[in-house]
Amino acid sequence: MSFLLAIGLGVGLAIGCTGVGGVLLVPLLTYGLGMGVQGAIAVALWSYLWSGLVAVLLYARHASIDWRMTFWACLAAVPGAFLGARATALLPGAALEALIALLLAGSGLQALRPLAGAVPAARRLGRGGLLALGGMTGFAAALVGGGGAFIVVPLLAALGQPTLIAIGLGQAIQIPIAATASLANLAAGRIDLLRGSLLAAALAAGIAIGAPLAHALPQRQLRRMLALAMLAAGVLMLARLALELA
């Protein structure tokens, strides 16, 4: 259990600081604790439900959540997460995981490049764009056991959204995704509630430490940390796939 708590604390710190980190949880549970992939996905999603509430409270306190964007994205995330949780038991996720890993690694490399001139002005996303973003995020996150920030944060950053606003939306969207997917996983008997609850407590502690750090750091330094987190997540997911196929 000590290794489980250490995993949760470390991943929670990464989530609190950069918004990205939850996608690392399933590989760590799978290879570190020997859990089956479906069980690890179910435990991870259960833990995001409770730790996500802590993250949202902390980011909302700093006014780092755009509630209009959050409402429409979360609305579409619910049906997407339901379909993704059902697909976990029906479809192999290797191809989707590879695509997400390449997206993460590519976005991380792009974000590591020095900014030429001023940061581009943020584009105001319309309702349709937010619904599409939320639905896609919900499906992919529930399918592979990520919190959703690994998709939302790099896409919003690419659209010129402020880093903290992108991270705040990534924190918020994991709650409806985790709740919807966990209902399906509970019905299928896939959740180890003891492990999931201990993991949630450790994640919450890490997030509580990391969130103030995110708001204290300069935006350029936070962008670099975010880029490195995305790159690490992408490489780790590709390594996981390579081990599975070996």
Care to describe what's here?
By secondary structure, the chain is mainly α. 80% of the residues lie in helices and 0% in strands. It contains ten helices and no strands. It has helices spanning 2-18, 25-33, 37-61, 67-88, 94-112, 127-144, 149-158, 163-187, 193-216, 219-245. Residues 115-121 have low confidence and may be disordered.
Q: Largest beta sheet, briefly?
A: none
Shape: globular
Low-confidence stretches: 115-121
User: How many domains make up the coordinates?
Assistant: 1
Helix content: over 70%
Structural class: mainly alpha
Report strand %: under 5%
Report mean pLDDT, rounded to a whole number.
82
Output the radius of gyration: 16 Å
- The termini sit apart by 29 Å
Number of strands: 0
Number of helices: 10
What string, H for helix and E for strand, traces the elements in order?
Answer: HHHHHHHHHH
Task: Please sum up the structure shown.
The protein has helices at residues 2-18, 25-33, 37-61, 67-88, 94-112, 127-144, 149-158, 163-187, 193-216, 219-245. The chain is mainly alpha-helical and 246 residues long.
